[in-house]
Structures are given as structure tokens and as C-alpha cells.
Amino acid sequence: MDYCQSAPLSIATDKEALISFKSLMSLQSTNPLSSWDQNLSPCNWTGVLCDSPGNRVIALNLSGFGLAGSISPQIGNLSFLRSLELQNNQLRGALPTQMSDLFRLRVLNLSFNSLEAFPSSLLQILDPQLLPLMGNSPDNEQSTIKLNCLTTIFGVGLSCTSASPDGRITMRDTLRKLKTVKDTLVNNCSPVKKMKH
């Protein structure tokens, strides 16, 4: 049963999503999430910031908390989240595709973890200013090319920041992928084509 569809979205939804996130973490004896008590409002939990009028979670900053584990798919239920900072931890596995539901998200930092995959659907939540579309249709060819290039760049970035040396991409493969992105953009984006002539 999908919680998002079975109950109205509220601070209770946010609390359940955060408890699910915590449940997938391997926590050390010095538990950095010890304040995450189900009997308290998540607005009082370490690393959680809420807005004042509606008491919805708008930011999650767990940078450098020493968290190890995978990211819960329920994180997509934090529908008011604007900032997600999980850098400098030991997170692993693929990013849940439900993160693409975080349409208000403006800050995303996942660097220095061991994450393995960047779902292309996550690009849907990026601020449109980061990737201006040609014309008004998101389905046109140049927009698709840019999205594919951006997905590749993010994938290279995640591979370069893996905590495990075995999980990192080689410099040769990094250069090859970035050259492919450059060649794709130069050959397929009309403003660049015009500059070449």
C-alpha cells in the first residue's frame, strides 16, 4: 500500500518517511540520530528543519553524520523538501527513483558516499534554470540530448566520489565519457553549430 495515496500528506507523512530513512541506516554506538524519537515532532530532530506555518520538513542536513546504509524510497514522501544534504557519509546502493517526486528540491548534495546509480527520472526535479529547454516542449530533441548528457555527467560525478577506490571510475574512462558528452553537445546543439561556421 502506498502511504502517499492512503493518507493525507502531513507532518505525520514526513515523520514516517524519516523513520523509514533511519531504519535503513547502520548506526554506531554514538547514534547521531538518537533525537529521532517517534514520540517527538520531527521538527525537533537533529538535522531536520521545518517551515513555521505548516510544520513540514523543508531541509534535511545529515552531512558527516557517519551514516551507513541505503536511502529509503520513502524519502520521496518528503513533498516539501527543498534541501537534501547527505554528503560525507557511507551511503551505498542506488538512489531510489522516488526521489524524482521531490519537485520542490533545490539543493542536493550526495558527494563522498558510495552511491552506485543516478536515475534519469531524478533530472525531472532539477531547477529549470539549470537546464533551459529549447522552446516550450520538454520532448524536443535538443532537450533530450541535454538531459542524456547531464545524466552522464552526474553518473561520472558519483563514480568519482565513491568512498571505495574499487567503486571509482578511472581517469581514462572519465575523460572518455566527458569527451563523448562534449562531442554530443557540439554536434547536436544548434547554437554551438552556428558558432562553428
From TrEMBL:
Residues 12-51 form the Leucine-rich repeat-containing N-terminal plant-type domain. It comes from the Eukaryota. It is found in: Membrane. Its main location: membrane. InterPro entries: DNA_repair-toleration (IPR053211), Leu-rich_rpt (IPR001611), LRR_dom_sf (IPR032675), LRR_N_plant-typ (IPR013210). GO terms for cellular component: membrane. Keywords: Leucine-rich repeat, Membrane, Repeat, Signal. This is Leucine-rich repeat-containing N-terminal plant-type domain-containing protein.
